[in-house]
Amino acid sequence: MKVFGDFQFDETSRKLTCAGQRVRLPWQALGLLVLLIERPGETVTREEIQRNLWPTSSVEFEHSIDVALNRLRKALGDNSKDPRYIQTVPRNGYRFIEEVKSETSREPVVVHWEWTRRFKTYAAIAFFAGAVTFLIVHTRYDKVVRSHVPPMSRTTQTK
Fold it and tell me: Which of 13, 52, 72, 80 is deepest in the core (most CB within 10 A)?
């Protein structure tokens, strides 16, 4: 999880949120955000952006980069004249200027809890099935398994 300003970006699900609300971004703007927050404070050139976002495309990427950048700035509430997040580096590229913090996600704890809950459920079912089986075998044991002790002979009975 990357945190900057009022925003959180979950790298696993690739979701951007602000104050708990999801911020929807087109894939190009989202890809640009990922490039920038991976290297905060460093200049990401337009050529790097083109290689990462449109590696095999023959689109007019100059205009496409501008569109993606404008959509990203709009979603972040940023502007080029007084930037808080994305600074334009003239004739070179862009730089993410806000501090980006990495936080560990709480999802593994949730996954662990779900796994523990499932395990407890399966263990309870197995215990119940074992108890029922034990009761059935215990109450019907004499009917199922007959005693193999030979009857006592008459000579032993008379003594």
Answer: 72
Q: Can you say whether the dihedral through the CA atoms of 91, 97, 101, 105 is positive or negative?
A: negative
Per residue in 138-149, pLDDT (tens digit) is 777 666 555 555
Global confidence as pTM: 0.62
Whole-angstrom Cα distance, residue 103 to residue 101?
A: 6
Q: Which of 110, 104, 102 is nearest to 38 (CA)?
A: 102
3-state secondary structure of 159: coil
Three-state secondary structure call for residue 21? strand
With contact defined as beta carbons under 8 Å apart, do 78 and 84 qualify?
yes
